[in-house]
Write a structure and sequence with these properties.
Elements: E1 11-20, E2 23-33, E3 39-40, H1 43-77
Antiparallel strand pairs: 1-2, 2-3
Bound molecules: zinc ion.
Zinc ion binds near residues 4, 7, 33 and 36.
Length: about 80
């Protein structure tokens, strides 16, 4: 049985919600401390979260570039 690094409480594998850049990712496997609620992710899950973070950042960048561009187009057309 694993224990929590923070409080030495018991940790249990469960599915949790993870917030990435304000986006909630549901059903992420994590070992959660039953005492303090600290979450521990394995390497695979951690890198998946990193990928999502990067993806959101990239998409957001592209998204806002388009929005700004079309805002300028509307401005110059008016
Ligand atoms: Zn704990």
């Amino acid at each position: 049985m694993k224990t929590c690094y923070m409080c030495k409480g018991p940790v249990e594998l469960s599915l949790v919600e993870v917030e990435v850049r304000g986006v909630v990712v549901k059903e992420m496997p994590a070992e959660v401390c039953k005492r303090c609620g600290e979450k521990y992710f394995d390497t695979k899950t951690a890198s998946f979260i990193q990928e999502i973070t990067k993806c959101i950042d990239d998409k957001k960048k592209g998204y806002f570039v388009d929005i700004i561009r079309s805002a300028h187009e509307i401005e110059s057309a008016a």
